[in-house]
Automatic annotation (TrEMBL):
It is found in: Cell membrane. InterPro entries: MFS (IPR011701), MFS_dom (IPR020846), MFS_trans_sf (IPR036259), NO3_transporter (IPR044772). One of its GO terms (cellular component) is plasma membrane. It is a multi-pass membrane protein. Pfam families: MFS_1. This is Probable nitrate transporter narT. Residues 1-31 have a biased composition (Low complexity). Its main location: membrane. GO terms for biological process: nitrate assimilation. Keywords: Membrane, Nitrate assimilation, Transmembrane, Transmembrane helix. It comes from Actinomyces slackii. The chain crosses the membrane at residues 43-61, 81-101, 108-127, 133-153, 165-184, 204-225, 256-276, 282-304, 316-337, 349-370, 382-407, 413-436.
């Protein structure tokens, strides 16, 4: 970005920060914010369970990739597109999903997504060609849009005092990405070559069948356990009013943050099993466990990120997130692995796993911090703004794996995924800092919205 465009962008930020001062939500009444409405915690519990399962379905191709590659004879680029198309469809409808959840209620939107996901997942087990697998992987991806629907749903049920924590708990459903990594290798090894009732095959094809059954069961639980009378904050709002905040440049800046903490998280969840197998020659089961050591903190620390954002502000959490990710990834840029003769080079495996674990911790904090910004600045448009941020962040998860594959093919560097994200994180941190400093100088009184009540 050149100097003129940067100054123009920052000037726009300053103007908009003034507007945010005029429309910022007032501090919540301390006496009224201690208790949530009846049913709020049932919504949080069932939406989190549903999202965890749908996230597992959405990213199941990360672990199934190697068996699929072997059966269909695919190269690395072809393999990367299977996960990529699932991520694409799980990202491109997040804006509409958030708007629909605001207008018609998150309950119905989540239910429809699970039904579609169950049918598509069942069909994946019957794929007979690479083209068919691509189409079905795309169809399965629809469940990834459940995130923006769930964010809008939980935001409607919780008061500002606990909203950051509630959204963090819901977002911890990202841990679903590790489910396939943990149960997949054992199921694949134990059932390979077997055939079950109705012609269901074992091996990797059994995984999507299991998920289809679990989705069907969860649909029933969610529908009959959560309140029948749902909250619909956007029921009477016009579509134009719901989309108006998307012209605010802050929305797009928050989206870039989310590309780093969520888009890259999705990309790493998909590529790390292959990375560990190819460069450190570990087994599929070991690669799944090592990847889970990244996924768990990146998901389970999300409630902590919500608490930190509630306590000290989302901006503080974002600074810490980007500084940690940038510093750790800089070390991981050193090419590491084991050569064909079994000689290690670069960083040892245990250190790589530890550093990737730290990146996951920072991403867990950062994901919650990004979504704490949204109800703070756009309390009446959580569905549309959260949907756009989620959509663009998810699209980062779509573009990054193929980009990693193509750049690695050109450079031959095994650490390409770490190098690319290091550059993106560094540029984003610099931009965020420059904009914040300019806002503080130009409109210091407008900065009060970042100070927790």
């Amino acid at each position: 970005m050149d100097a003129a465009s940067t100054e123009s962008t920052e000037s726009t930020e300053c103007t908009e920060s003034t507007e945010s001062k005029e429309t910022a939500p007032s501090a919540p009444d301390p006496a009224a914010a201690h208790h949530e409405a009846p049913g709020a915690y049932r919504v949080l519990s069932l939406s989190t369970i549903s999202f965890t399962l749908m996230f597992a379905v959405w990213l199941m191709f990360g672990l199934l990739g190697k068996p699929i590659q072997k059966e269909f004879g695919l190269d690395e680029v072809q393999l990367s597109w299977i996960s990529a198309v699932a991520v694409l469809n799980g990202s491109m409808w997040r804006l509409p999903a958030g708007i629909l959840a605001d207008r018609f209620g998150g309950k119905i939107v989540m239910t429809v997504m699970m039904v579609l996901g169950a049918v598509s997942s069942l069909l994946v087990s019957m794929a007979s060609s690479y083209a068919m697998l691509l189409v079905l992987a795309f169809c399965v991806g629809v469940v990834g849009n459940s995130f923006s629907a769930g964010v809008a749903w939980n935001s409607a049920w919780f008061t500002p005092r606990h909203k950051g924590f509630a959204l963090g708990v819901f977002g911890a459903g990202n841990v679903g990405a590790s489910v396939t990594k943990l149960i997949g290798p054992g199921i694949i090894a134990a059932t390979a070559g077997s055939t079950y009732v109705l012609g269901i095959q074992g091996g990797w094809r059994l995984i999507p069948v299991v998920y289809a059954v679990l989705l069907a069961i969860t649909v029933v639980l969610l529908w009959f356990t959560t309140p029948m009378e749902d909250r619909k904050p956007g029921k009477s709002a016009s579509l134009s009013s719901m989309l108006k905040p998307l012209r605010d440049i802050r929305v797009w800046r928050f989206s870039l943050y989310y590309v780093i903490v969520f888009g890259a998280y999705v990309a790493y969840s998909a590529i790390l099993p292959t990375y560990y197998q190819d460069h450190f020659h570990v087994s599929l089961g070991t690669a799944g466990l090592l990847t889970a050591s990244f996924i768990f903190p990146a998901s389970l620390l999300r409630p902590l990120g919500g608490w930190v954002s509630d306590r000290w502000g989302a901006r503080v959490a974002m600074y810490g997130t980007f500084l940690i990710i940038g510093a750790v990834l800089t070390v991981l840029c050193l090419p590491s692995g084991v050569d064909d003769a079994g000689r290690p080079y670069g960083l040892p495996l245990w250190l790589v796993v530890l550093l990737v674990f730290l990146v996951g911790c920072a991403m867990g904090i950062g994901k919650a911090a990004v979504y704490k910004h949204i109800p703070t600045y756009f309390p009446d448009n959580v569905g549309s703004v959260g949907g756009l941020v989620g959509m663009l962040g998810g699209l980062g998860g779509f573009f990054l794996p193929p980009a990693f594959a193509y750049i690695q093919r050109l450079t031959g560097l095994a650490s390409t995924p770490f190098i690319v994200l290091t550059l993106i994180t560094g540029a984003t941190l610099i931009w965020m800092h420059l904009v914040i400093q300019r806002m503080r100088r130009a409109q210091p009184e407008a900065d009060h919205i970042e100070v927790p009540a």
